[in-house]
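Hi R.,

Quick one: here's the diguanylate cyclase sequence you asked about.
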Amino acid sequence: MAPLSWQAERAAFMNGLGRGQDQDGFIEEQVRADRLHQLFRQSFSAIFGSYLAAVMLCWLCWDRFDHSVMLVWLVVLGLTSLLRVKMFTDWFRCPNSERTPQRWERRYWITLVLSATVWGAGAFALMPTDDRLSQVLVMLFTVGMSVSAVSCYSVYRSMTLVSMSLVLLPCTLWLLVQPSPMQVGVAIAVLVFSSFVVSATRKLSDALEKAFRLTRQMERAHSISTRAAQTDELTGLMNRRAFFEQGQRLYAQCRHQQQPLCALMMDMDHFKAINDTHGHQAGDQVLRQIGGVISTSFRQDDVYGLSLIHTPSPRDTT
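And here's the predicted structure, written out as tokens:
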């Protein structure tokens, strides 16, 4: 029989339940994957934004900074940016089944830490010791980079904090130990501003995680209710209504794709005698065993179910 992709997805979901996966643990894995997908979707522009900010800073202070330091910084930052572009290219090219946190989170962390370290170290290397205007410009750009980290990495609060720290702290700590009250004041202002950003980051990250979790919980509840409405409680097979609905869908699919289709009907003889002789509990046990045999005999993508025909006499099954 032709496979139905939606059936495979539903079967995989139910297999997760059948293996005894804890409900909360199953949802947590889904939420973790959702966060990773959101991270890649919203942070791609950060690669070009960070490099563009470095170019603008060098352009504004071209006559104030050491040209050799600026060129080395831009080259190294460009290499780290290319490394991140390569990572994003691999992500978009790989199949969705391989976009797992176990495979991609560590790789993303490495490229992020490398890029943020280069940015913070480069800004610190460019920081002049006697030019207040240039110092303010450098701090302005580092603060801007830190704020942009909130929008890019908000689904991972730890990434946001690490990125902000690597970019901001070198220049801020240097200003904090300078003798000029103005320099110390700028450093303190940056630290105070950063504390508010950190607080906002925590709230935003928590809100996003709750939204992902609520979405997955609703999807899970819907899947369970749909499964219950389509399944015979005793045997675990599709009930009559679900069987005919999916059978018609499979028939239409095979007809449209001009694929062969076969149908098999099985009848269980003398079931009435089992109920009359051994009671309905024994009959129910027989139905459970029949359901188990059918479930293990067909492929996961096949359509199979149970139809109970009620007559004035004790029930028969076909």
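DSSP finds ten helices and two strands in the chain.

Cheers,
M.
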